[in-house]
Amino acid sequence: MAQVRNKQILASGYITGNPKQTDMYLKNSTITLQLPLHASSETVLVKNLVLSCDPYMRGTKRTDRNSLFNSFSPDSPIVGYGVCKVLDSKHPDFQKGDLVWGITKWEEYSIITKTDSFIKIEHTDVPLSYYNGLLGMPGMTAYAGFYEVGFPKKGDYVFISSAFGAVGQLVGQLAKLLGCYVVGSAGSKYKVDILKSKFGFDEAFNYKEEQDLDATLKKYFPNGIDIYFDNVGGDMLEAALVNMRRLGRIVVAGMISQYELDEPQGIKNLVNIVYKQIKVDAFTVYDYYHLYPKFLDTILPYIREGKITYVEDIANGIESGPAALEAMFTGKSSGKQVVLLAHE
Amino acid sequence: MAQVRNKQILASGYITGNPKQTDMYLKNSTITLQLPLHASSETVLVKNLVLSCDPYMRGTKRTDRNSLFNSFSPDSPIVGYGVCKVLDSKHPDFQKGDLVWGITKWEEYSIITKTDSFIKIEHTDVPLSYYNGLLGMPGMTAYAGFYEVGFPKKGDYVFISSAFGAVGQLVGQLAKLLGCYVVGSAGSKYKVDILKSKFGFDEAFNYKEEQDLDATLKKYFPNGIDIYFDNVGGDMLEAALVNMRRLGRIVVAGMISQYELDEPQGIKNLVNIVYKQIKVDAFTVYDYYHLYPKFLDTILPYIREGKITYVEDIANGIESGPAALEAMFTGKSSGKQVVLLAHE
Question: Is the interface score ipTM higher than 0.85?
Answer without folding.
Answer: no
